Amino acid sequence: MLQQTQVDTVIGYFERFMVQFPTLELLAQADQEKVLKAWEGLGYYSRARNLHKAAKMVMDAHEGVIPCTYEALQTLPGLGPYCAAAVTSIAFGNAVPVVDGNVIRVFSRFWGIEDDVRLPKVRNEIFDRLTPIIQDFNPSHFNQAMMELGALICKPKSPACEKCPLQSECVAYQTKRTDQLPFKSKAAPVPHHTIVVGVIWKAGQILIGKRRQDQMLGGLWEFPGGKCEPGESLDGALKREILEETGLHVTVGPPYCAVQHAYTHFKITLHAFPCTIDSGILEAKSADELRWVSWEMLKTLPFPKANLEVLKFIESLLQNAQISQFSSGLL
Ligand code: SF4
Q: What residues line ligand 1, using a CB cutoff of 6 Å?
């Protein structure tokens, strides 16, 4: 949960998750949908899918015992070098250095490394140089201390060098280059996509699709729709996307809402519209499954964040009884 996510955000999710899935066995036995629902809103859903798969693998292939070595941990889904080093050192006391963004900043300054810290070779160099050093320390304390040093003292801007225990041997400090190191090349501009989705009503139920497992946000439910192509109108794109995904021709109603959302590598504006079916035969052409659900059922299923905002909007309409103005012929 803590990958790419701040502790304050994680605490509530972690506590609820541990109540719902207190043992590896219960997690392994749970439906993926329940795991995703418990993760809903935390983002980076591949972490939830991988954690669930890893729990199954530990139960099936390791007799319920989590492997303890750096190498064996990396055979579990979702555990790369960073996570495996953290678990093997902090949980099992093995001397493997954790190299996260904070540690890279500390040691690129300490050793005066001038290469672009986006390059994997910088991470590898720091890992190789720290490996003999950590052998002389308590690995859990060493790794946590280095990560904290980066988070609290050797901050990206204005590092508190006067409080730093590494000061006397720090190349960046001694050469007055703490504002130049680490060197990080500019990130590519983040693309923006316009997304359209349809809330298709029929007899009080709404049509939703389950995203394919191999897709981003796989296993989550969503309203049918997709990306607006250059030159397309919003309702034109929505009609095309719904036809391509479900086989249905629809009429698009007046807009519900527009939601802004940022993912790691792109941003979206998602426009939601109520829709009614004109013709066609329902068929899941790109989703794993299409399902008609009641409003109550819909709230029990896991949705991506931007779709949750659409749900909130619909809920406010329902609560204000304004749905009637949208619902003539739509419900
Ligand atoms: S002396 Fe300053 S720049 Fe060097 S490691 Fe410590 S806080 Fe970072």
A: 106, 109-110, 153-154, 159, 161, 164, 166-167, 170, 172-173, 178
In the chain, list all ranges with CATH 1.10.1670.10: 99-184
- Report the DSSP beta bridge partners of residue 269: 194, 260
Q: Does domain 193-327 have CATH number 3.90.79.10?
A: yes
Three-state SS annotation for 129-141: HHHHHHCCCCHHH
Least confident of 107-111, 188-192, 316-320: 316-320
Residue limits of CATH 3.90.79.10 in the chain: 193-327
Q: How far apart are CA 311 and CA 206, in angstroms?
A: 11
Residues 6 or more apart whose CB falls under 8 angstroms from that of 94 comprise 68, 69, 70, 88, 139
Name the pTM for this structure. Answer: 0.81
Mean pLDDT of 220-249: 97
CA of 140 to the centre of ligand 1 (A): 21
Q: What is the CA radius of gyration of the chain?
A: 25
CB–CB of 257/326 below 8 Å? Answer: no
Return the CATH number of the domain spanning residue range 99-184: 1.10.1670.10
**Phi-psi category of 247—alpha, beta or left, where left has phi over 0 and alpha has psi -120 to 50?**
left
Ligand 1 centroid from CA 3, angstroms: 24
Phi, psi (rounded to 5 degrees) for 46: -60, -25
φ, ψ of residue 201 to 5 degrees: the values are -95, 140
For 274-318, how does the pLDDT look when each residue is reduced to its tens digit (9 = 90+)? 999 999 999 999 999 999 999 989 999 999 999 999 999 999 988
